[in-house]
């Protein structure tokens, strides 16, 4: 399911995550693959594409540059940033509004900082150097919006899809919360969200209101002037229009709850400052939240936390200290019940 097959007019980038490309050419970390011709050939037969790809609505797809070394990989994000800047310049010269999703490959794993940023961080580790690089590239994109005169008419939203992948540490981020990517603890699902719109969003605002990434769909529809009545019937829409939350001084979130899944397992629900778990992912060794972790039912009672009192989810408050548990658990059950009317689709993943 390529981006230009499911709604985007154009795609320019790499399909897989960085590690899925670089492991073909990183003999230092993956000698058993790179230095073994038979294994490498078997991997290439089933592995994801390692080409920079340019795709267009309608299906036309071009493979451009192939990643042949870790040095090529180190320069990939700058190639993407340069393309985004170029497209901003072209689209801003037209009369139509435009939408761009710029996806960053770095600060995931494995990280190979651009030669210009090697050793630039205080830690001088690849992940930290890559943060410096990404910061500079975000600046280039923001400057392009400003230089082309569209910054005051553009909503910019900077975020992440999950918490740090601690299994790759120290080539990984870090979190003060429990868990990491691969779990539904706060360390796996709580991510930064930075909304910017010059002249429309007051600078310096902070909020602990709930915002789900799906809510960006609701915001986009609202700003584009498209009614939800125009959406296809027979589908369940999880997003909430959070435009007023973002744009109003002192705006409040319209979202009451967020639901957390692990694959096909409904794991937890966050409602206001409360969070209830009915299943949990338990790491069996430090930092190993994917490669050495297990999924467990919680046992006799749901694990119920007050995140204002205990953001690290270390001690349950349970029904003995807070009667809200039944309310939050009811929310979670109601969400799970929607799958009876709208069953999950098999999309081949």
UniProtKB/TrEMBL annotation:
Keywords: Hydrolase
The keyword Lipoprotein is annotated on this UniProt entry: no
Leader sequence residues: none
PANTHER family, per the entry: ARYLSULFATASE FAMILY MEMBER (PTHR42693), ENDO-4-O-SULFATASE (PTHR42693:SF53)
InterPro entries (UniProt xref): Alkaline_phosphatase_core_sf, Sulfatase, Sulfatase_N
Keyword Hydrolase recorded: yes
Molecular function terms from GO: arylsulfatase activity
Homology family: Belongs to the sulfatase family.
Domain Sulfatase N-terminal intervals: 7-226
Gene3D superfamilies named among the record's database cross-references: 3.30.1120.10, Alkaline Phosphatase, subunit A (3.40.720.10)
Enzyme class, UniProt record, top EC level: hydrolase
Protein known as: Arylsulfatase
Enzyme Commission numbers on file: 3.1.6.1
């Amino acid at each position: 399911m390529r981006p230009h097959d499911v709604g985007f007019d154009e795609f320019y980038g790499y399909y897989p995550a960085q590690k899925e490309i670089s492991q073909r050419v990183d003999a230092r970390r993956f000698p058993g693959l790179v230095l073994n011709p038979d294994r490498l050939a078997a991997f290439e037969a089933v592995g994801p594409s390692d080409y920079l790809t340019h795709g267009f609505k309608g299906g036309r797809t071009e493979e451009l540059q192939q990643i042949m070394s870790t040095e090529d990989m180190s320069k990939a994000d700058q190639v993407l940033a340069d393309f985004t800047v170029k497209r901003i310049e072209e689209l801003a010269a037209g009369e139509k509004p435009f939408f761009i999703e710029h996806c960053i490959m770095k600060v995931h794993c494995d990280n190979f900082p651009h030669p210009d940023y090697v050793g630039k961080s205080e830690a001088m580790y690849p992940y930290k150097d890559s943060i410096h690089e990404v910061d500079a590239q975000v600046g280039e994109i923001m400057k392009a919006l400003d230089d082309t005169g569209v910054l005051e008419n553009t909503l910019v939203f900077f975020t992440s899809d999950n918490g740090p992948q601690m299994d790759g540490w120290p080539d990984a981020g870090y979190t003060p919360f429990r868990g990491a990517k691969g779990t539904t603890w706060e360390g796996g699902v709580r991510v930064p969200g930075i909304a910017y719109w010059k002249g429309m969003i007051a600078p310096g605002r902070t909020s602990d209101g709930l915002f789900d990434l799906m809510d960006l769909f609701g915001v986009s529809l609202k700003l584009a002037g498209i009614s939800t009545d125009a959406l296809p019937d027979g589908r369940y829409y999880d997003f909430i229009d959070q435009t007023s939350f973002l744009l109003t001084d002192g705006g409040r979130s319209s979202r009451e709850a967020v639901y957390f899944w692990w694959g096909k397992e409904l794991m937890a629900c966050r409602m206001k400052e409360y969070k209830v778990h009915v299943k949990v992912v338990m790491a069996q060794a430090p930092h190993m939240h994917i490669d050495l972790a297990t999924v467990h039912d919680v046992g006799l009672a749901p694990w119920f936390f007050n995140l204002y009192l205990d953001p690290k989810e270390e001690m349950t408050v349970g029904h003995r200290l807070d009667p809200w548990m039944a309310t939050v658990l009811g929310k979670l059950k109601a969400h799970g019940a929607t799958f009876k009317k709208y069953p999950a689709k098999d999309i081949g993943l």
